[in-house]
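Protein 1 of 2
SEQ + STRUCT:
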Amino acid sequence: MSITIELPHVGESVVEGTIGKWLKQPGDTVKRYEPLVEIITDKVTMEVPSPVEGSLVRLLAEEGETLPMGAPIAEVATVDSPEGAEPETASIEVQTAAPDSPGTTGHLLRDVTPVGPTGGAVVELAEPTGTEPKAPASRPAAAPTPAKPASATSAPSGQTRLSPAVRRLAQEHAVDVSRIQGTGLGGRITRDDVLKFVESGPSTTPAAAPARQLEGETSADGEETYITVTPVRRMIAEAMVRSVSEIPSAWSTVEVDVSGLVALRSSVRAEFEQKQGGSLTYLPFVIKAVVEALKEFPTMNATWGGDKIILKNRVNLGLAVAAPGGLIVPVLHNADQLSIAGLAAAANDLAERARTKKLTLNDVQDGTFTLNNTGALGSYLSGPIINYPQAGILTTETIQKRPVVITAESGDAIAVRSMMNICLAFDHRINDGSEASGFMSAVKSKLQKMALGTSIY
């Protein structure tokens, strides 16, 4: 029989989704639970599987088209389909974690770059549009999809497709992926597979990284190039405009001496990575200081409710990250209940699921405050945009050794110390300068108390 596939319902607050990319084309054979389509919602971008096995007959929705949940998107002829049978309907099942599940998910992504000073917003993913479901008859026209250039690293016909991160890594190292044996699910090539292949043979890395190539339509006079705005980029733009237009934000920065923190990380890093098998960056230490300070200043862990200020009883920390497909803010639920080592280990778990697009709605929902590691980009100072509707966003800047004046009983002296700026943007409706300064002082104090001997467990 012929089965009509419907756009899956992925949560009560999600009313529509955008077709990001079809992973199968008409005429292709599709197995049950095999990825069929990439869906972008205002909460998360995910690959969703086919509920049946058969042959894809036709697509009922184009890439870039936004549809209400439950709308038909494709027809699949099952193996035992009789001639002329009326099509039945089937919904794609998407697994999401329960809202009150233990919060050890939502962590720092390991193979992507933290966002720059433009900081907050929701995930890779999308921004709340606040629109009601649209009737199928009023669907917007499909956005044009820019042509994609052929790549020497594209997977050959029949091979498991590559994730954007793996494809980019293979291109950087000029690796022929057809020579790599994938160890991922269904033989999929992972990032580790590419790295092991590079390490096992002569380096084929170019002497200099090639300039970033942006595909688009060139104007008639050749003076301009027009790049089609992707659904993710459009949703991020809407989020930024909403935050700036609705939140009266103020900005503050303080300088932190993290010499003790640098020494602490150096002393425990090798042991941690040997035991845990994952990296130990500075970020878990900063997260620990921030979540403890949020407990002391609850109005920083809040939202504006018009006639009331809504304090959040749980500390769910969002981590702003720039993934290849756009901005993503996975959430560390109940982050105040984890140790530094727990924060780092949990980060590695989420990183793996983020690379394979296995994030659930629970991983990106209910954030109460956002942290943004702009220092990874070499930033010295930044003015982040608040992740609406939260009360604030904090950035950590690059750590630099600088000469500073040290005051002691014997008098002032100049010493070389590891210094870092932390910058806060906050909702001035909820907090004034006094609360913001108190919060920043608490974060600074907690970071400066970290030194050799501090337990990370």
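Protein 2 of 2
SEQ + STRUCT:
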Amino acid sequence: MNIEPFSTDDIAPFLELATAENWLAEPWEFEFLLSQFSQGCFVARSDEGETAGFVTSLRHERSGWIGNLIVSCEQRGKGIGEALFRKVLETLLDDGVETVWLTASKAGMPLYQKFGFKSIDTIIRWNGIGRQNNTAPENRTACKGAQPALNKIDGRGWGDRREALLAATISRGELLQQESGFVVVQPCGEAMQIGPFSAADYSTADALLKSALNSVPFGKKVCLDAPASNRSVLSLFNRKKMQIAGSNELMYAGVKPAYRPEYIYGLATMGSCG
């Protein structure tokens, strides 16, 4: 088995595997990851050239994120996932990151614990529906000039600067912003994703979520991932009649991050980048 660099030609095969696992993944994520940290994205192939698995990663200022670790059904149980994970983790650490993040299914946790990862939170997936009533949503803000303020708000939750990830999501979605919070509404397959979504307090989050739902066509599926330890999320999302659709563990290794989940209401991607 050979571990090789992930290329743009590998995006379509990855998405095919991801669809079979009911993962929510979009081509833009891989184009973004390859443009930002291509040295941390890998594919495993057999000696005959058959694709067996994938993993990606992204570096922020002091932290990194591992995502999209997947092995084809036919190749599982052969240590391919562990080999890919070891390779991507070594790459991030060699590049100087202090903390490495990931989200893990229950099945995946033993592998990550083997490499020293610890649980820090649970990420809950929420589903809802759009409520657009043909009126323009409040709080809409043009992207130009908004980035520095967004970096500061986002950084309060994650304890790091994630400018490239925020810029990428904003460029493909609709930004709604208040002085102490922001949310991006972006396409996600046949649904719409709410996130990244950060707010300093409940009232700001409430107003932003209302505007976000009102920006999505009535009845269209909406999804987002949010930390369970943000106690405001449960109350707020239940009030909006959103429903829990699943969960994963948020884990880290290395330096304990200055993580403040009370500021985080929605992740920027559905698992691949945080």
